[in-house]
Amino acid sequence: MSVPTGKVIVGMSGGVDSSVSALRLLEQGYQVEGLFMKNWDEDDGTEYCTAKDDLADAQAVCDRLGIKLHTANFAAEYWDNVFEHFLAEYKAGRTPNPDILCNREIKFKVFLDYAEMLGAEMIATGHYVRQQVRDGRPRLLKGLDHNKDQSYFLHAVPEAAIARTLFPVGEIEKPEVRAIAERHGLATARKKDSTGICFIGERRFSDFLRQYLPAQPGTIQTPDGDVIGEHMGLMYYTLGQRQGLGIGGLARYPEEPWYVAGKDLERNVLIAVQGKHHPLLYSDSLATEAMDWIAGEPPATEGRFTAKTRYRQSDVPCTIRTCDDGGVEVLFDDPQRAVTPGQSLVLYDNDICLGGGVIRSTWNAQERAA
Ligand SMILES: Nc1ncnc2c1ncn2[C@@H]1O[C@H](COP(=O)(O)OP(=O)(O)OP(=O)(O)O)[C@@H](O)[C@H]1O
């Protein structure tokens, strides 16, 4: 077997996955260096900001492995290409997923360019995905550990960037990753998995959003227009959500929980229904904005695929039709609960991630019949 001689820059987050990624590449004979990115400037030293600790952990691992760690600040690019879009989506009443855009715009674009400047043709990350060349083209596959698979977040990364990236932990299961880190005495072996929005972190979301968007309180109504409560601002609510509505004790309704079923942006009204499985919480079809196809174009044969409409969801069978505007229409075999505009639909052909697009509209059987 030939020994790889190329230089690879590993995105070191200070977590266990990127630590083990760097280790594996060294074992495989690559010339490895690390890069810690800081993409959010605010809040240094507050309870939310873990960047300092993460950098220290990344440094400790690099010292242990004997590799160089670079640092870079892409906060301006993150703000312009990810965060502004994120705010615009909330303003439009949708619930965006900034990590998808962050991967496309920062981790697999700005980072790649930066790595090139450092003299590396390849980068690596600790994402749980695999890359495989089929028919001469790089394909993005789900991580071997389906429990940790992160292809949902990488579906908008173009083929050319996938081809220049190594995913050293995609072929192993998470418990094994921790065991490897433990065996090699890496400081991150037992570190908790990160949660929250990448680079922004975990924080009281409504407080955070309020700093950037004015809250416009309004009424909560039933689909028939009966006013049953007040909301703090439509952006704070997600379809299908139960908690935080503050409705209860209404004599004219049974004592059953209420769920968010829709947002009427024009009237600033939040629509709520009773019962976790109310028909208005289900959609049997949707349309997306223009798709990001990893291969740059839709699959040669349209038709039957599986899809996810949110990260932690098992794939569901569906039929797709491509539209002239670059989006797709998707018809699910079974209605899906709480399909949310602004989130992404991601399509799969077995383990191959084909791409995805932001959900623009959804319909349920009643609406289709009307
Ligand atoms: N601040 C950062 N600097 C450099 N690379 C990063 C940074 N944050 C994330 N990455 C890269 O993106 C990958 C996936 O990030 P994610 O936030 O999903 O972390 P994760 O799956 O918990 O991985 P890890 O255990 O390495 O933190 C990381 O493994 C790392 O390669």
From TrEMBL:
Q: Which GO terms describe its cellular component?
A: cytoplasm
Q: Which residues form the tRNA-specific 2-thiouridylase MnmA-like central domain?
A: 207-271
- Which stretches of sequence are listed as region Interaction with target base in tRNA? 97-99
Does ATP-binding count among this protein's keywords? yes
Which positions bind ATP? 11-18, 37, 126
The biological process GO terms on file are: tRNA wobble position uridine thiolation
Compartments where found: Cytoplasm
Known EC number: 2.8.1.13
Active site residues per record: 102 (nucleophile), 198 (cysteine persulfide intermediate)
Keywords from UniProt, A to Z, are:
ATP-binding, Cytoplasm, Disulfide bond, Nucleotide-binding, RNA-binding, Transferase, tRNA processing, tRNA-binding
Report the principal subcellular site: cytoplasm
tRNA-specific 2-thiouridylase MnmA-like C-terminal domain boundaries? 284-359
Identify the Pfam families for this entry: tRNA_Me_trans (PF03054), tRNA_Me_trans_C (PF20258), tRNA_Me_trans_M (PF20259)
CDD domains, per this entry? MnmA_TRMU-like
Question: Which intervals of the chain are annotated as region Interaction with tRNA?
Answer: 148-150, 310-311
InterPro entries xrefs: MnmA-like, MnmA-like_C, MnmA-like_central, MnmA-like_central_sf, Rossmann-like_a/b/a_fold
Q: Which positions, given as ranges, span the membrane?
A: none
GO MF terms here are:
ATP binding; tRNA binding; tRNA-uridine 2-sulfurtransferase activity
Q: What role is this protein assigned?
A: Catalyzes the 2-thiolation of uridine at the wobble position (U34) of tRNA, leading to the formation of s(2)U34.
Q: What family is reported? A: Belongs to the MnmA/TRMU family.
What NCBIfam families does this protein map onto?
A: PRK00143.1, trmU
| HAMAP family according to UniProt | tRNA_thiouridyl_MnmA (MF_00144)
Q: What protein name is recorded for this chain?
A: tRNA-specific 2-thiouridylase MnmA
Q: What phylogenetic lineage does the species belong to?
A: Bacteria, Pseudomonadati, Pseudomonadota, Gammaproteobacteria, Oceanospirillales
